[in-house]
Amino acid sequence: MKNINFSGKAKCFMIQGTTSSAGKSALTTGFLRYFSMGGYNSSPFKSQNMSLNSFVTDDGFEIAVSQAVQSEAAFKNPIRQINPILIKPSSDYNMHLIVEGKFHGNMDFNNYNKKKNYFLKKAKENFEFLARNNDLIILEGAGSPAEINLFKFDIANMGFAELYGIPVILVADIERGGVFASIFGTVKLLPLKWRKLIKGFIINKFRGNLKILDPGIKSIESMLKIPCLGVLPYIKNLRLEAEDSLNLINHSGNGSSNNLTKSCKLRIGIVHLDHISNFNEFDPLFFDDRIDARFFKEAPDRLNELDMIIIPGTKSTISDILSMKKTGIFDYIKDFEKYGGVIMGICGGFQIMGKRIKDPFHIESEIDAMDGFGFFDIETVMKNEKKVLNQRYLLNLKNGPHGEVLGGYEIHNGRTFFVEGYSGENIYTGLFEPVETLDNPSSAENGILSKDKKKIGTYIHGLFGNGIFTNFVVDIVKENKGEAYNCNIETDSCSYDAVKNRNYNLLSENISKYINIDLIKDFAGI
């Protein structure tokens, strides 16, 4: 790629990792909070992100959630320019492609690579927009820069850094083992022109006595002629909204420090679907002392092992119904419903709770139609037009919270309708009434609650970020347990936003304490 002469005012540097989940997103978030608190008008940027967790900006554009988090850490509202290309895998070979915040189409990876120049052009346009309007841009790479089979297609790591001469910091996760080999191997696999862009490395997630690392650090510095910028300690219970399902491995229970036994908590199981999307919206449950939340990929042994099941969003609804049938989860949920457990479906999970899902245009699957659970008298048809909204909703309940304003967002191709002849006798409709739009409040898409309060369905993501809604769900589960629930656990009174801000500040403090900021400022010209 040819270097670009560009006069944008912003200084910049890029965080790349030796592997996926090395800590690129967390470090980018921490650096943005650190420099923003220091008075720099800062912005994140990731040219290409592959993630099933997305966020809807205030003006209705879809971007990766990690860039939204980073923007928040920089005290800014997320905008579409910070993540111009979002790849949402729909199968092993195909993707749902978002370009500049809008649905671009379904595509296989070979065709995507053939159109690399078009996507690179979009990435450059958006980066240059940010460079004209910020003091500092902190870029995040994707995966590893040393994927030698993908060098010629690289528009997210060294290929992009080379265009603008952007200095690169390499981060490696010591918790995985082989940290020095991963640093050495990554650097040595790169062409010499790319190696020259690496100005330093950071070792992440270290536990123990730092002196043990000193000989290895000195050796790798000598071999590569690249300085170590610092060693960051492992931060227990740090949770940032994650990009991919690798992070679900650590979401096996509540990381709260509350000493009360888990038997005293409400047990909420979230189905870990093969194509699960927007699973970051459940993070508030893992911080709630009243809740023992966990993801599960196999049917639990007993019906009384859970108090509530959530069927989350999915990028391939029909495929995930088939997967649930293979694992036994589908039958388990049917039995759980008969047993009287509380069930909630969000987006694709809401569709699955209905009678039937139709995909006549094969938006998500090659299968034309599939039956769901039939818990609600609704059916869903997949459409080419995608509904993307970030707005406020009124929570409307009979004998419960009424008129409370909740924040949330919608991202779905499916349109859901009540089946012909439904009576509505056993359900409440219009559970969530949009404030800004003119949708019919009685529409199936505005949420359904069964009159026994044991089944909830909605298209709205992000509801658990609203304490009012979480309290409503907790009360439903408590009521359903009846005398079996005799505990009185109060959750932390602070909001989830406050929890996130504490994490951003903690990352910033660790960077200030353990990282050679002066050297970074020097090579980045800050």
TrEMBL record:
One of its GO terms (biological process) is cobalamin biosynthetic process. PANTHER family: COBYRIC ACID SYNTHASE (PTHR21343:SF1), DETHIOBIOTIN SYNTHETASE (PTHR21343). InterPro entries: Class_I_gatase-like, CobQ/CobB/MinD/ParA_Nub-bd_dom, CobQ_GATase1, CobQ_N, CobQ_synth, GATase_3, P-loop_NTPase. Pfam families: CbiA, GATase_3. Residues 14-243 form the CobQ/CobB/MinD/ParA nucleotide binding domain. The keyword Hydrolase does not apply. HAMAP family: CobQ (MF_00028). Catalyzes amidations at positions B, D, E, and G on adenosylcobyrinic A,C-diamide. NH(2) groups are provided by glutamine, and one molecule of ATP is hydrogenolyzed for each amidation. Pathway: Cofactor biosynthesis; adenosylcobalamin biosynthesis. CDD domains: CobQ_N, GATase1_CobQ. Residues 267-466 form the CobB/CobQ-like glutamine amidotransferase domain. NCBIfam families: cobQ (TIGR00313), PRK00784.1 (NF001989). One of its GO terms (molecular function) is catalytic activity. It comes from Candidatus Acidulodesulfobacterium ferriphilum. The keyword Acyltransferase does not apply. This is Cobyric acid synthase. Belongs to the CobB/CobQ family. CobQ subfamily. The active site is at C347 (nucleophile), H461. Keywords: Cobalamin biosynthesis, Glutamine amidotransferase.
